[in-house]
Amino acid sequence: MAxxxxxxxxxxxxxxxVYYDYIIIGGGTAGCxxxxxxxxxxxxxxxxxxxxxxxxxxITNIANxxxxxxxxxxxxxxxxxxxxxxxxxxxxxxxxxxxAVNAGFYTRASTRYVKEVGWNHNLVNQSYEWVEKVVAFKPxxxxxxxxxxxxxxxxxxxxxxxxxxxxxxxxxxxxxxxxAEGHRHTAADxxxxxxxxxxxxRERPQAxxxxxxxxxxxxxxxxxxxNSNKNEIILSAGAIGSPQLLMLSGVGxxxxxxxHGIKVVVDHPMVGQGMADxxxxxxxxxxxxxxxxxxxxxxxxxxxxxxxxxxxxxSLSNSLAHRLSNNFKRFLSQTEHPPFRVLPEAIARAAExxxxxxxxxxRAGVILEKIMGPLSTGHLAxxxxxxxxxxxxxxxxxxxxxxxxxxxxxxxxxxDVVNSKAYSKFRYKNMPVEALIxxxxxxxxxxxxxxxNATFSLEQFCIDTVMTIWHYxxxxxxxxxxxxxxxxxxxxxxxxxxGSTFYHTPGANPQATVMMLGRYMGQRIxxxxxxxxxxxxx
Length: 538
Prior knowledge:
Blueprint: E1 17-20, E2 22-25, H1 31-38, E3 44-47, H2 57-60, H3 65-69, E4 78-82, E5 88-92, E6 105-106, H4 111-117, H5 121-135, H6 143-154, E7 160-163, E8 170-173, E9 175-176, E10 191-197, E11 206-213, E12 219-224, E13 232-235, H7 238-248, E14 251-252, H8 254-259, E15 266-267, E16 273-275, E17 279-286, E18 298-301, E19 306-312, H9 318-333, E20 336-337, E21 340-341, H10 344-358, E22 364-371, E23 378-381, E24 392-394, H11 401-418, H12 433-442, H13 458-464, E25 467-468, E26 494-496, H14 511-537
Parallel strand pairs: 1-12, 2-3, 2-13, 7-8, 13-26, 14-15
Antiparallel strand pairs: 4-5, 6-9, 8-18, 10-11, 11-12, 16-23, 17-22, 17-25, 18-19, 19-22, 20-21, 23-24
Helix pairs in contact: 1-14, 5-14, 6-11, 9-10, 11-13
């Protein structure tokens, strides 16, 4: 049942001009806990360009994960884009951000990550716990996920860490934001730009308001109250939205802004730099027996710095289901498929799987590997000055050889799991792994060229079939664009608090840490405001 969010309003009902203590641009995975925390003792305006997740069964129901990501409608909660690398991707466009459209896996960052970033360990743990009381659950592990876990242990991804939110080497069951009933726990298209003013006696510009449009194209203005220098605008629009909005507001590489006719407020060459996306590669394994609908619940955290995860029984949109079904039928019809032969018995048993695809539910498992880091990075650039259009994004997958090495090792581990005794009942015995690899090469997983040697070379397979797991980050990184307090360098009253500030993905899935960061920074900002207020009284 949807919470009573009566304070969520369509922008069309907003006054033309409003004043608040804090204006948060982006009601996403970081913006929501940040707003909830700052609302204690202050007025908050959250501007979210998407709608509410409540009442949309594609968002709230675990079985509809696939169709949500494939929704291409203008109001889709998952806005699609394709990187310049030829990899399909999405950016969230809904209250709750990525937590409203992702696979729901909940796991914390490692203690090493927390130490390297420089966060306060105790406040980090308190912030995680605050989040977990509301959105995190222990999943029920059914047959397919159990087979994946046992397969990982069998092939040496040890030890068995059972259920835990903590980041530990070995195999574990993590948390989920789906409850026991399979329901996910997590307002007009708002287009906004930041406004800056120069105050007499100040050498630096100061953020003081935003302009946004509602669904009817009517312009609205929201300003910070003038009674305190502690009032702030906070960008929490994600790794695509935050650097894009900074540039549109005149904060970014001067040459690039001028090329688009944007007045330069601050020449910030590193805005949009350091964009990274953790490469994902998968095997689709048709199952001779029914599988449960499960998203990521088990993860193998390897010592060669790759994560092994899986999902089963996914549903697809009609269009993709038919494309996948047709490709698979063509693949199965090639009974003499060099250098291996798919036996007729395997074809007959797989026919039911094809029927399942055509009816939108895959009777199969998907085992994936995602590399840690990554080391390879790219950049983001404006396409135009329309904030609703996707910018150009380049991630440079596998530019660094070390990333490719991790992928190869990860794929070898997946192959070992598929061949393990623990996983054996969920695969066709007469369909060799080479056939599964070749099947992946027939599927429209990206827009990259497929090479003939990808069947035999895991290196080429990684390059040719790379996909996203939607954990991209960077563009407003700490020390380059913001300081350790997430304040934009060179500008007063403006912060960026979201995944765009990360150099690497925190753990197997970043959402727990992004939510934690919203709470963590909200607490720090409130503390600083309280200290500032006490000093003024004294």
